[in-house]
Design brief:
The chain contains 4 helices and no strands. It is an all-alpha fold. Helix 1 runs antiparallel to helix 2.
Length: 112
């Protein structure tokens, strides 16, 4: 979460004259996804204290990898990485979706 705050602050202050408006929008999206999903990762960690941790551990890894691929993919693209690396961004989005669906199913199972 600290990295998300740092990158967000850089985008708001230091990069406004460096990046094009569309790039700043992409950076903002990456920061938002990183921060929101990092909060979800914290929630999963707290849930591990009360629910069986094996499945939650997989969900946590999916969230972490999703954040790295989605937000990280956007970050490296904006830093000038080859466009080929941009293909990890949608993969990260799919991982995030699957992680949230798996968490929903796990919570639903735990209430039955």
């Amino acid at each position: 979460m600290a990295i998300g705050v740092i990158v967000g602050a850089l985008g708001s202050h230091a990069l406004t004259n460096v990046l094009a408006p569309r790039q700043l929008t992409s950076l903002g999206t990456a920061v938002e996804y990183q921060l929101f999903n990092a909060l979800g990762l914290l929630v999963v960690g707290l849930l591990m204290r009360t629910l069986p941790a094996a499945r939650l551990r997989l969900i946590a890894w999916a969230l972490l990898l999703g954040i790295l691929c989605f937000s990280g993919g956007i970050y490296v693209m904006l830093a000038g990485a080859p466009r080929l690396l941009g293909y990890i961004t949608p993969l990260g989005g799919v991982m995030l979706i699957l992680a949230w669906l798996a968490l929903t199913i796990e919570l639903w199972r735990s209430t039955r």
